[in-house]
Amino acid sequence: MTDLPGRRLLLVHAHPDDESINNGVTMARYAAEGAHVTLVTCTLGERGEVIPPELAHLSGAALGAHRRGELADAMHALGVDDFRLLGGPGRFTDSGMMGLSDNDEPGCLWQADVDAAAALLVDVIREVRPQVLVTYDPNGGYGHPDHIQAHRIAMRAVELAAEAGCPVAKVYWNRVPRSHVEDAFARLRDELPGSPFEKAAEIEDVPGVVDDERITTAIHGEGTAHASAKAAAMRAHATQITVAEPYFVLSNDLAQPLLTTEYYELVRGERGDGDGDDGGRESDLFAGVAAAPGSGAAS
Ligand SMILES: [Zn+2]
Question: Which of 38, 172, 233, 252 could form a disulfide with 82 if both were Cys (CB 3.0 to 4.6 A apart)?
């Protein structure tokens, strides 16, 4: 790959839909700004529960194929052209929720050798040379085996890439500040009777919630085209998500706020200048990163 733009962002996710829920605003913003945005999804989410009754017959590989189409539609909504499956489609399959016998299936992501899977991601890093990588925290945000593995693979790939002379300047984990999600849920409980949804989720259902002090970076999207793009991308994942802005439900039918500001914790690299109006948090994942010229071919 030659002549990539100066700013290059890599996101590592477990299933199609995770990228839109966690990072839709961020991906839309950087794509719109002309940065190169690369999404690596580790599985096709073959064990996801399907919401629409007319698609309920889909499972396993057929569901994976369908979700691949949903992912393509979501990326179109976000303006992202470079989206890939780790090791190619079907290389790693969905491991199911923690504790199920699915976790033991050969070929599922939970059974993958982390170093071998990370080597596949290193190939992407060497090609794209991202300055910024985004993934989950060590618990995968909420304990799903594929999210935990995506975290391990991403963090190991950063180490291996650095050893191979291809360092990633900044690594972020997806986070949500507790005060923000508490406010959003208070509003949700007030507004639930007027919404199409019957029950609200709990704050504990939101992945990656931490005390506010740990948030280093906020990508604000309220009222912007990026927020609309995020909602459209989430709608594209129709087997998994039902959207009625400013809320959405997963297959558990419990309403959650659709967050139009996305939050991050910088865990590797130098924190850049913050925004004085936002408690000193960075407002740009690339803050402090010198824009390098296009990657050229990986050497
Ligand atoms: Zn997921």
Answer: 38
Q: Does 18 appear as a known binding residue?
A: yes
50 part of a folded domain: yes
Tell me if the bond preceding 246 is cis, omega within 30° of 0. yes
- Cβ distance 134 to 172 under 8 Å? yes
Residue spans of alpha helices (H) in the chain: 18-32, 60-78, 114-128, 145-163, 178-191, 225-236
Going from the Cα of 146 to the center of ligand 1, the distance in angstroms, rounded, reads 7
Q: Is 147 annotated as a binding residue?
A: yes
pLDDT reported for residue 278 = 84
Ligand 1: centre distance to CA 13 (Å) = 7
Higher pLDDT, 297 or 77: 77
Q: How far is the CA of 16 from the centre of ligand 1 (A)?
A: 7
**Tens digits of per-residue pLDDT, 218-244?**
999 999 999 999 999 999 999 999 999
For residue 128, give the CATH number of its domain.
Answer: 3.40.50.10320
Question: Is residue 290 in some structural domain?
Answer: no
pLDDT tens, position by position, 64-73: 999 999 999 9
Note whether 247 and 258 are within 8 A (CB). yes
Q: In the numeric block, which tokens belong to residue 179?
A: 């005060």
Query: What residues make up the domain containing 140?
Result: 8-177+207-234+260-268
Residue 182 forms part of a structural domain: no
Instruction: Compute the distance from residue 41 Cα to the ligand 1 centre, in Å.
Output: 10
Position 2 pLDDT exceeds 70: no
Calculate how far, in angstroms, residue 143's C-alpha sits from the geometric centre of ligand 1. Answer: 10
Q: pLDDT digits over 260-290, tens only?
A: 999 999 999 999 999 888 889 999 999 999 7
Domain count, the chain: 1
Residue 91 to residue 181: CA distance in whole angstroms: 36
Residue 89 has pLDDT above 60, yes or no: yes
